[in-house]
Amino acid sequence: MRTPAARTLADYGVIVRRSWWLIIGTVAAALAAGLAYTSMSEEVYESTSAILVLPTASDTAVAGARTAGQVNLDTEAQLVKSTEVAVAAAEALGADDPDDLVSRVSVTVPPNTAVLEIAFRAEDPEAAQAGAIAFSEAYLEHRRSGATASLDSAIAAATVGLDAVNADIAAAEDELSGMDSDANGRAGLESDLDGLRQQAEEIEAEIAAIDAQQGAITPGRVINKASVPGAPVSPNAMFNLAAALGLGLPLGLVLAWARHRLARKVAYPTDLVERCELDVLASVPPGVKFQRREVFGAYSPGGRVFSQLRNVVSSQLTHDQRVIVVAGVAPGPAASVVAANLATAMARAGDRATAVAANPSTTVGLPELFGTDSVPGLADVWSGRVDLTEATHAAPRQPSLNVIGPGAAARAAGPTSEAAAETFSKLAEAGRFVVVDAPPLSCSADAQLLAGHADAVILAVQSGRDSISETAAAALAMRQIDTPLLGAILLPSVLGPMNTVPLPTARREADLRESPVSQDETPTDSLEPVDEEEATTQVMPAVPSSAVPAAEPR
Q1: What is the reported pLDDT for 454?
Q2: Rounded Cα–Cα distance for residues 359 and 437 (Å)
Q3: Is-contact 473 266, C-beta < 8 A?
Q4: For labeling, which of 63, 67, 381, 513 is most exposed (least CB within 10 Å)?
Q5: Which of 150, 161, 146, 151 lies closest to 211, judged by CA?
Q6: Greatest CA separation found in the chain?
Q7: Strands (DSSP E) found in 426-554
Q8: What are residue 434's DSSP bridge partners?
Q9: Pairwise CA distance, residues 335 & 351, whole Å
Q10: In sequence order, what are the residues at sequence separation of 6 or more whose Cβ sits closer than 8 angstroms to the Cβ of residue 149?
Q11: Rounded Cα gap, residues 248 and 265, in angstroms
């Protein structure tokens, strides 16, 4: 038996196929939401300028930087969005909120370059271009100001040093002017004065070099000027639809899986295998329409299904195993339809078969499907009123098939173990297959009792009607006895109305007129007991197996 752990890709395909409408609906809803979001979103334009950043005197190489060289472009990218740059850009644009401008700016650094790409977004193309230009110019000016301030500081420091040296030179010259030409120390003082004058010249040269460097400062230049964008960057219809599809498809698959796992009714054969741990002997496909509750013809689509079921069942039974119990899960005609068609398929294959109506909970059973008498029947045999041969009726058009109806003495107490064992033994000794239509397991334990004296059990499950929990409970109940549970057969949710072929006796016609509504779903326990002293049983003579009874009109 296959269990849920043996799930294959084909099983997931079944889940997708059974809920395709849910998946498509979810994807369609997601795409509609993406279109709605696209149509409701305001258009946003983006303009980008590219700046080649050049090193200045204040730049030094940074260890571990992402880009090589003296300029750390990651730091420069942060400076573009700094408050000082934003304030300068706001003044250029005439804006009052620098923080709002910063939120519209994005800076990227292309790999292995010394380029900053400054992008600015706005509601119209011209504003986007103006914003990108304003931030580019404000950044370059900020960088120029930083480099100039550094050189100004160097010039100021050199000037202070030059003033000190000049003061020393003036003091040395005054002292030297007051000394005689042959005075002691005059030569040393002249040497010191020459050194001070040389030092002053060096400082003046340094200041001149810094001045020249200050005039040649180039913090960077715009290599790609911001242009007026021709189309908005947001909303992006293709991106939004792709995102909606990427979200809607997984969500649809999750919903399909949840629908599969949370389903309460049996709908597909995989439900029986995965959730009820039942082998599926046969499944009547949805394409097979029940125009009425009937016994299928040999070459009809439904007839082929039950012929295959007969072959499967026969292959799993030994020569001495003859009795097969067909039990439904919930009240209804499912078990009767399966039992009637299985018995007919056996008769067509040349086997002698007897269909036994042991389910008194429905008025649409084997006699109605075969057009035979329901009395005398099984209950009359078990009550001792008639012999088994008298309750056996030949099925029309099937000489090797006999039918035993439920009888007129059906009681809510149900069968006894001894009576069931004796009846099945007698029928099996006659060399016949015995197909028993048992009461539903959800409202009676009679099916379990009957199965205890049978050789095999089959569950008749109706899709869209029988719940998964009740089906699993029915399978468990049958596994608790020694009789092998062969598996289940799945029927469509609609089995059609009852055939209106005239019944063979006036009694059955009267019974049908007295029943105002169909009692297909009447539980066994709801039947009223019959008083044996007041009950009148119509005893029918035994019909030879070769005879075909004709319907008796009123």
Answers
A1: 92
A2: 6
A3: no
A4: 63
A5: 151
A6: 173
A7: 433-438, 456-462, 485-491
A8: 323, 354
A9: 21
A10: none
A11: 27
